[in-house]
Specification:
Layout (H helix, E strand, L loop, with lengths): L3 H14 L2 H13 L4 H17 L3 H12 L6 H17 L3 H14 L4 H17 L3 H18 L1
Helix pairs in contact: 1-2, 1-3, 2-3, 3-4, 3-5, 4-5, 5-6, 5-7, 6-7, 7-8
Length: about 150
Amino acid sequence: MLDPPELHARARAATNAGPHVEAARWARRGLERVPEPPTRARLLGTLSYAEAQLGHLEPAEALCDEALAHDGIDPEVRGTGHAQRAVVRLRRGRRAAALADFNAAIRVLSADHQALGRNLLNRGNLHLETGQAAKALADFEQAVVESDAAG
């Protein structure tokens, strides 16, 4: 029997490959096994991503909320949760809420160059959508710096 971290690894592999229904299935199996809070939060985040990719945006946001409500999760998991919820909120047209989550993700993920670059790029796109070209350009320039640092 696979344990929750192994099920999470399978869910992530499936969602990275594209079969989001399969990813959701693996994540749900992991959640059924009542994992520890950090693994539970990771499973919820991966399930949220799969649900969002399937067009189920409201449940995806609720899954992010649940993941972020857990105490005892490390900064990387918390930052990733904020980043995921930001993307879902942006897709739902909730720009102000998305901006708040991108800001939180960027603060928390400041040591992870790859994640920071990705979130700066996403926040920059949000700034473009809201007509804030100077803020978008600043985020895009910093995203390049972070991405270069990540290799």
